Amino acid sequence: MRRWGLSLQVAFTFIGTVVGAGFATGREVLQFFTRFGNWAGPMILVSTALFVWLGAKMMLMSATMRARSYEDLNRHLFGPKAGAWISHLMLLVLLGVNAVMLAGAGSLFSEHLNLNYQSGLLITMAACFILLRKGMSAILAINTLVVPVMIIFTAVLVIETLRGPGADRWMTLPMELSPWAAILSPFLYGAFNLSMSQAVLVPLGARIGDPVVLRRGAWIGGIGIGAMLLAGHLALSSRMPGVEQFDIPMGGIAREIGPWIHWIFVFLIFMEIFTTLVADIYGLSLQLQERVKIPLNALVVLVLLLCFMAGQFGFGPLLTTLYPIFGMLSLGWVMLMGRDRVRPAPPPAPPEGFS
């Protein structure tokens, strides 16, 4: 039972790391899947397979290597020199992703809570700093609480969509874009999110070390991500093309269902944005600490300030511009991950701090 509990914690942390600002708000699902019409279903299956396969492989390799951070994994994949350069690039990409997360929180505050965009950024930054003082244990705990509730409310959203007039549009919506763009899109989406999740999954895999727990967690987490992608696509496609006008499409859909569902869903969207932001900033700060001998809390503040400055460009422009570019950069990483063999892991050390 203890190993099953650990597997669920791994799965929820995997889901919580991927389900961030773009996913929870609906912008990512719209950008990479829903706009391709009835092709989106098979595309989501491809992405789900990538998450299960490479998510497990990444954590198992990290356990074998006892990797301290994602730079150790990149040096293993690309060699010492190229791995160092890839890690430098990852630092910049993670900064961009964190800026998107922070901007997503600001947009949520301005669109749905009638608060100033800048106030949303500052409140999120303060909450992030307070939680990160607890380290990896806090990241696991918050994902274990938030992700199951998010799954329940996603199911509610799907049920309400199935009762509406456009429930079958996810199968009938025409595909009017380039077939090549549709074929490439699930690989871009999977590559981008898997490479970004290194910041959390690499130290997590090394810390737990148990291959059975890690494989089981990757299967549960990967299938969970796929199910949530499909649920989001079903809800969004039923309201196309009007839903494209929103920065927070899922929030607009929740508002149609009713005020209580809307407010609870807005809170959950914020928490999903927040969990991914916390996890990514933690991994990024750990990576920076290997390069500069500055206290971790000071690095967290520095990263948050940089994200605040980048967040001034706004959520929609940042996501639609940066995410496809980052996906292209991540494809080479995914190909090397797929080619590399997982060696047998040493006997796992007791995972202190886990319950």
Strand content: under 5%
The end-to-end distance, rounded to whole angstroms, is 11 Å
Low-confidence parts lasting 5 or more residues at pLDDT below 50?
345-355
The helix content, as a percent range, equals over 70%
State the name of the first-level CATH class.
Mainly Alpha
Task: Please report the total strand number as a whole number.
Answer: 0
Whole-number total of structural domains:
1
Q: Could you name the CATH topology? A: Amino acid/polyamine transporter I
Please state the oligomeric state of the protein chains shown.
single chain
Shape: globular
CATH architectural grouping:
Up-down Bundle
Order of helices and strands: HHHHHHHHHHHHHHHH
CATH superfamily annotation? Amino acid/polyamine transporter I
Averaged pLDDT, please? 78
Protein name: Amino acid transporter transmembrane domain-containing protein
Subcellular location: Membrane
Organism: Cohnella hashimotonis
Keywords: Membrane, Transmembrane, Transmembrane helix
